[in-house]
Design a protein that fits this description.
The longest helix is centred in the last third of the chain and has 33 residues, at about 265-295. Helix 2 packs across helix 6, helix 9 packs antiparallel against helix 11 (about 170-195) and helix 9 packs parallel to helix 12. The model is unreliable at about 1-10 (pLDDT under 50). The protein is about 70% helix and about 0% strand. It is globular, with a radius of gyration of 25 Å. It has 15 helices and no strands. It has helices spanning about 15-20, 25-50, 55-75, 75-80, 85-105, 110-115, 125-135, 135-140, 145-160, 165-170, 170-195, 205-230, 250-260, 265-295, 300-315. It is an all-alpha fold and about 325 residues long.
Length: about 325
C-alpha cells in the first residue's frame, strides 16, 4: 500500500505534541487556507473602503477556523495521522466539528453577498450566481436535516466500519478527498443550525437545538464502540511501525476516547452561540415592538386595556 507523501513508509519516532506540531504542509490544504484568509480579508477591506463595517468577532472566528484546519493538515499531525488512529481521529474531529463551527461564525456567505458588486441589469455576476445557488433546490436538499443528519452519522459508521476507509487511505488523492468530505459534511450539518448566513433551511431556535442533539449521541456511540472493541477494527492501523512504540488496540481505544469526548465540545459551543443568537433575536423583536408602539401611541395596549375594562363591566 503506497502512502508516499504522508509518512506511512517513514519510521516516525514516538509521537509527542512537539513533534506533531512541526510544520509539514499538505500543499492542497496550505493553498486553500491561505486563499481563504486572503479572500476573506480582501472582502472585509472592500467593505471598509466604502464606509461599511464588519464585526471584528466574525473576522476572528473565521481566521481561527482556518488556522484549526492548517493545524491538523499542515503539520506533522497529518503525517502521524496516517500511521496512528488516535492522531487521525483528532484530525477528523477538528476538521469536521470544530473548524466548520468557527468558519460559520465568521459568516463568509453574508460577507461575500455584501462585498461582491451587483451585476448590471440583464446580466449575472458572481453575487447573482451565489444567490441562485443559495435558493436552489440542490441547497434545499443538502441543508435539510433529513439529509444532513444521516450524512453526518454515515461519515462515521459507513466509513470506518467498511473497507472504504482503507481504500481512501491507500492514496494521496483518497486521503485528501476524505478530509475535504469531513469538512464539507461539518459545514452542511452546522450551517442550518448556526443560522448566521442566509440559507434555504432556517428552522426556529428550538428546532435547531433538536437537530444539534440528534446527531451528537452517534458520535459518542461510535467512540464507545472503538473503546470496547477487543481487536483492531481498521485494517490500515493494524500493524503500526515499531519505531512508534504503540500497540494497535491501545491506540484504537485512545481514538475512541477522543471521538467520545470531542462530541461534547462542539455541542457546548453551538449551544452557547444559539442561546446568544436567540437572546439577540428577542431583543430585536422587543425593540421593533417598542418602536411600533411609539408610532401608533401603543394602540395595542390601549385595546387590551379596553377589553379588560369591558370584561369588568360585564361582571358588575
Amino acid at each position: 500500500m503506497d502512502h508516499s507523501g504522508h509518512g506511512m513508509n517513514m519510521d516516525l519516532p514516538p509521537f509527542t505534541l512537539g513533534r506533531g506540531l512541526q510544520f509539514s504542509a499538505d500543499p492542497f490544504f496550505l493553498i486553500g487556507c491561505v486563499l481563504a484568509v486572503v479572500l476573506y480579508g480582501y472582502a472585509v477591506l472592500r467593505l471598509c473602503r466604502r464606509g461599511d463595517s464588519w464585526p471584528v468577532n466574525r473576522l476572528v472566528f473565521f481566521v481561527i477556523g482556518v488556522l484549526t484546519i492548517a493545524l491538523v493538515m499542515c503539520t506533522k499531525l497529518n503525517d502521524y495521522g496516517m500511521v496512528m488512529f488516535s492522531v487521525h481521529m483528532v484530525q477528523h474531529m477538528v476538521i469536521s466539528m470544530l473548524s466548520p463551527i468557527l468558519l460559520l461564525l465568521g459568516a463568509p456567505v453574508t460577507l461575500a453577498l455584501r462585498a461582491l458588486p451587483v451585476a448590471a441589469r440583464g446580466s449575472k455576476g458572481p453575487r447573482e450566481l451565489l444567490l441562485m445557488l443559495l435558493h436552489s433546490r440542490y441547497m434545499k436538499i443538502i441543508t435539510h436535516p433529513v439529509f444532513t443528519i444521516p450524512l453526518f452519522i454515515a461519515s462515521l459508521y459507513a466509513l470506518y466500519f467498511t473497507p472504504l476507509f482503507d481504500f481512501l487511505m491507500g492514496s494521496t488523492a483518497g486521503h485528501l478527498a476524505m478530509m475535504v468530505h469531513f469538512l464539507a459534511v461539518g459545514l452542511v450539518f452546522f450551517w442550518p443550525i448556526m443560522g448566521i448566513d442566509p440559507g434555504p433551511h432556517r428552522p426556529g431556535y428550538l428546532m435547531r437545538m433538536l437537530e444539534l442533539f440528534a446527531g451528537m449521541p452517534f458520535h459518542a456511540f461510535f467512540g464507545i464502540a472503538l473503546m470496547m472493541a477487543s481487536q483492531p477494527m481498521v485494517k490500515v492501523y493494524e500493524n503500526p511501525s515499531a519505531s512508534l512504540g504503540i500497540d494497535a488496540l491501545s491506540d484504537q481505544n485512545a481514538a475512541g476516547g477522543i471521538a467520545w469526548a470531542f462530541s461534547e465540545i462542539p455541542s457546548v459551543l453551538v449551544l452557547v452561540a444559539l442561546v446568544f443568537q436567540w437572546y439577540r433575536s428577542e431583543q430585536r423583536t422587543a425593540k421593533r415592538s417598542d418602536r411600533a408602539a411609539d408610532r401608533d401611541g401603543d394602540q395595542e395596549l390601549q385595546a387590551y386595556n379596553a377589553y379588560l375594562a369591558s370584561l369588568q363591566a360585564r361582571g358588575q
